[in-house]
Design brief:
Length: 422
């Protein structure tokens, strides 16, 4: 009778059985699939048998490359095999009872650990995955160490469960990356990680935090329908241009923590990408809404200024000649978008002094006394006196000046209110 697991996982050469399950189960297992305590073989001998299978599979048969199927194998001890695998490797459903040690290993073809269970730590630091890397539904009972790996193709961790810490720091993912429905029981580290392709964390469950400090997203990142606390995704030291590649919305924005980013720097001229400016405007708008929900008035003021700056820059790109006269630019000049009360006050004083200066200009035919100058100036200031019964340009100028002073006084009051609220 052949091993039941060899049949289940489709081994090309089913192994002879060495262990039979207790009465009633009618299952027999080979030395590779038998439980750890039932192998009746030394750790050294077992590793030699595994290495023998790998070496045999590495030999091309009739000129064709073979794949190595170690699916379902129960590794009873620490496992550390080769530094390079020149064939597809399948560890689907394998159980690593002790440490799985794969650091500085190069997988030239498919590396599949689908549904594998790592009872102790899993070490993959500095390894290379040149082809498809599949860790979907894998269970990491202790630490999962994937720092400084290079994944050149698709990498899938869908439904993986990380009971211990997960460290992907300083890694590079050049293909699509999926952590959909993954579960992180402890903190996960993605610090300084580069995602060249799209990355997807949709429906992930995060019990602690995920750290993305100084990480880079170049092709989009999705974090929809997360199960986590507010501010669970730490995006410290992440650039604005990188953050715009994240699919942010009012439903998930509160999950992110932005600290020490370059958001605080003013949007400067030179961005020629209107799509980028549209995205960054929406990002600032979401940040302002999030700050308002937490009653963080200084934050509201900061994000409001940044939002309007990005909007103005977008207008500048679309209308290079007309943006100077746009109301938003005038709003910036007159009060810093309602956030600079000193500027608003100075502009208000200037509007009042302009008619005073014009009325004080010397006339060749008249010699105005100071009282007459002040009296004439009051005609330009709202709510001080009725407009004289005059017609023509003078009356129009007085009406326009009163309107502008009224608007500027309102803006100054608004900016002053914001100052006190901060």
């Amino acid at each position: 009778m052949t091993c039941c697991k060899c049949d289940k996982y489709g081994w090309d050469e089913p192994q002879q059985t060495v262990f039979r399950a207790p009465r009633g189960m009618q299952r027999e297992y080979c030395v590779f699939h038998a439980p750890s305590i039932c192998k009746e073989i030394s750790a050294l001998k077992f590793n030699e048998l595994v290495e023998g299978i790998i070496i045999k599979c590495s030999m091309k048969e009739n000129g064709y490359m073979q794949s190595c199927n170690l699916s379902g194998v129960v590794f009873p001890n620490n496992i550390s095999l080769f530094s390079q695998y020149d064939m597809p490797m399948y560890f689907d459903g394998a159980k690593f009872r002790m440490d799985a040690i794969f650091p500085n290993v190069q997988f030239k073809f498919v590396a599949s650990f689908n549904n594998a269970v790592f009872f102790e730590s899993a070490y993959f630091e500095c390894s290379r995955f040149d082809d498809f890397a599949d860790f979907s539904r894998a269970k990491f009972r202790k630490g999962a160490f994937f720092s400084k790996i290079l994944a050149s193709s698709l990498a899938v961790f869908d439904e993986a469960i990380f009971h211990g810490g997960a460290n992907f720091g300083e890694s590079s993912f050049h293909g699509n990356v999926y952590f959909c429905n993954a579960i992180f029981r402890q903190a996960g580290q993605f610090n300084s990680t580069t995602f060249t392709g799209p990355v997807n964390f949709d429906n992930a469950s995060i019990d602690n935090t995920l750290l993305f400090s100084s990480s880079k997203f170049f092709a989009g990142a999705s974090f929809d329908s997360l199960t986590c606390q507010s501010k669970a995704l730490d995006m410290s030291h992440v650039s604005t241009r990188t953050i715009t590649n994240i699919a942010l919305s009012k439903d998930n924005f509160d999950k992110f923590l932005f600290q020490n980013t370059d958001f605080e720097s003013k949007i400067k001229p030179g961005f020629k990408n209107c799509t980028f400016l549209e995205n960054i405007t929406e990002l600032f708008r979401l940040a302002k809404r999030d700050a308002a929900s937490e009653h963080d008035q200084p934050g509201v003021s900061l994000w409001h200024y940044q939002e309007k700056s990005a909007m103005l820059e977008l207008i500048r790109e679309r209308s290079p000649w007309l943006w100077h006269f746009h109301w938003l630019n005038l709003y910036r000049l007159s009060s810093g978008y309602g956030e600079r009360e000193n500027r608003a006050f100075i502009c208000l004083i200037i509007l009042v002094l302009i008619p005073l200066g014009l009325n004080a200009l010397p006339r060749p035919d008249l010699n105005f006394p100071y009282s007459e100058i002040v009296n004439s100036t009051l005609s330009y200031i709202p709510f001080t006196k009725d407009l004289p019964a005059q017609s023509g340009w003078l009356r129009l100028g007085q009406g326009v000046t009163q309107f502008l002073i009224t608007i500027q006084a309102t803006i100054f009051a608004f900016a002053l209110r914001n100052r006190f609220r901060r």
